[in-house]
Specification:
Elements (H helix, E strand, L loop, with lengths): L2 H19 L5 E2 L2 H17 L6 E10 L2 E10 L2 E10 L2 E2 L4 E4 L5
Antiparallel strand pairs: 1-5, 2-3, 3-4, 4-6
Amino acid sequence: MENSTRTSCAILLLAAAFSVSSHEHHVISQASDLVPWCKSEAEARYVARNITPYNWTASYHESSNILYVDGKLRVHGDAVIVRCRIASGARDEHGIIEIDDSSL
């Protein structure tokens, strides 16, 4: 491998490692704070498969220190149910997402 190619690869790997390690996790303390996380996580799963979801709607509630989001996306013209939950005060990396779509 040529020196400049090795240097370019090393720079790309370093940049990728920095971007992963610099990701900040956010604490989610209210159910309303879980809504954008839930939407983003659901959409990311479709975008990764080159599918564009649309028409996000959601409601949220809290029960026994657990925060819940019940959402819905339109995918391929169908409504897809999305459910998210997390313990109040937990970092977003600990959130749980369930998507009722057998194609995922």
